[in-house]
Structure formats: structure tokens, C-alpha cells
Amino acid sequence: MDLNAKREREKEVVSLMIQLYCRKNHGCRNGLCPQCAELDAYARRRSDHCPFMETKTFCNNCKVHCYKPEMREKIRMVMRFSGPRMIFYHPILAIRHLIESKKEARKVRKNEN
Description:
Elements: H1 3-26, H2 34-48, H3 69-89, H4 91-112
Helix pairs in contact: 1-2, 1-3, 3-4
């Protein structure tokens, strides 16, 4: 897959997860609240500058965590909340994520042996 396309897809998925979180937890129907908008912009900047985009699948599999601790905790809360709900709101993206996660887990296990 083209590196730019991969980067854009990752940013799209993160933004959708943040939107879902904000809608369900902060009641924002159109757009994002200021805190979630800040997190979305931050996550997009991190993706834009990720030096490991070619080799990683998802940020939680990365050896270097480039998020500031405060933002890392916020994105972790968003992922915990939105991850299981994505199957209902964005089923294709959720299934793709599951497949890619399984592939990554197999690759990691293979490299450990």
C-alpha cells in the first residue's frame, strides 16, 4: 500500500473514533468539542510526522510512543470506548482493523521465534 494512503487511512480511522467518542460522551452532534478537536489535531500531526509508518500497523504496536503522556491517556480512553463500538458505526473499518491486528500479531510471534 502507498505510504501516503496508509497515513491518510490511519488519520481517518482515528478521527472517526474521536468523533464517536465525542458524540457519545460529550453530546456533540455536529463537529467536536474543543478538547476532542485538540486531540484530533494532535493525533493527525503525530501521524503526519511518524517515521515508522512504513513498518508499523498501529500506534499501540510501535516501540516508540511519540504522544505526550497527557495526550496518550486521552487517546487511550477514546480507543477503549470507540474500539468495540466501531463495528456498529463503521463495520468495514473495524473488520479491516481486526484482520490487520491478527496479521501483525502473527508477524510479531514469528519474529520472536
